[in-house]
Amino acid sequence: MDPREYFIVSSICVLTGQGEAGNKAVHNHVSGASEVTLFLEDPSCSILVANVDEENNIRLSNQTGQSISWDGTKVEIHFMKNKPESISAENIIKTVQVTTVLNSPVSSLYNSLKSLYAPALLKNTAWSDKLPPRVQGLLAELEQSLKDTVRDSAAHAQEYSGDLKSFQGILTPTDEFQFWMSFSGTTVDREAVRKFNDAFEPLRQGFEKLDELQPTEVEELIEQAFTSLDDVWKADGISSRSTYPQERMTHLLDVMGGSFSRYAQKYLAALDLWKGPFAEIRSKITSVVQVIDKWCQVPLDLTSTYWPGHKHDWKGSTHEDTFTFNLGRRLEKILDLRSTHEQLVHLLTAEEARQLRLDDSFRAFDSTQPLFYNPYTQAQWESAVAIFERSWNLLRTRLLQIYAAKYQNF
């Protein structure tokens, strides 16, 4: 296979989830296609677009915009040249940039700007110092405008279609609050919408300033969230179209849990978890775990005790925030490891600690990011814990030998 075509084929297979199994079908479609040939050979052709639908059918184009309809699109993959030249096997890596567009161009641009370009350009002094203040302001304004557009477009589409089970643009609790503030559709009657907004009102300021709160203040916000969510679920209007959809509530519970998880991670991010002062580490982790556990109890209690059997009945299994719960258990494990280490430090003299190389106790965690729990890094974390525990057992054996030798002299 032409290595240039292989680059395109493998990129499409990976980005559409087909893997190696899709190589043959994608290759049959890409190899020799006029759009591919034009992109590879013509220096003036700057883009190749692969529009892939839910059944992995591919449509190719050398234009963007209205050249291809978005109806039925799963993902649109863009191969772009960063300079006008033909593509070879030698220059393809440095010349061709690959990006994807998901959901819509607007939401993809917003997500790229929010997650990549704005932080890189505005928070990294290597670049921000080179940007005029006016450009920095325009970037920040563009990010906010795109966010508003994504949220408003999603709200309009949901109101128009009557589908309140679509959550595009609802990434934070504030997005959900704003959705109902601006809701003008007919799928939920106005009385119910008014009750939703009244119930959400006490939460608005707390979630907008969540990162600025102390853990005790976050616990108060969680208590209010319990009351507000219960009020929203039990609110009704004057027609049958008046209750909060269960799928939407499930999404809101997940979004709120995600907000509290990120709060915990940001609150602890500045700490050196393995070498920082133990008293500070213990105090801050303990307070954050209390926040996490308090939140995790909210969806569990609401969907197991308060809502089943109500007029607006919660159907199916209880909702548990397993991600946030597991983050809490990760933090507890960090504190347990530090506590074990601290107890031994107090038993030893400085010379004994040096002989046992206590300063190297947590070296197994050097390549881990303990605050960032997710299923993909769990195996790495568990491996580091296992290494620590094995070395700790050897350390205890050596400590017993030291004390045995010490007491033999009496």
Description:
The chain is built from 15 helices and 4 strands. By secondary structure, the chain is of the alpha+beta class. The protein folds into 4 domains: 3-102, no CATH class; 105-165; 170-335; 348-410. Strands 2-1-3-4 form a 4-stranded antiparallel beta sheet. A hairpin with a 4-residue loop joins strand 1 and strand 2. Helix 1 crosses helix 2 (23-30). The longest helix has 30 residues, at 378-407.
Separation, N- and C-terminal Cα atoms: 80 Å
- Arithmetic mean pLDDT: 85
Instruction: Using the alpha-carbon principal axes, give the shape.
Output: globular
* Strand neighbour order, sheet with most strands: 2-1-3-4
Query: How many structural domains in the coordinates?
Result: 4
Rounded to the nearest angstrom, the radius of gyration is: 27 Å
Strand content: 5-15%
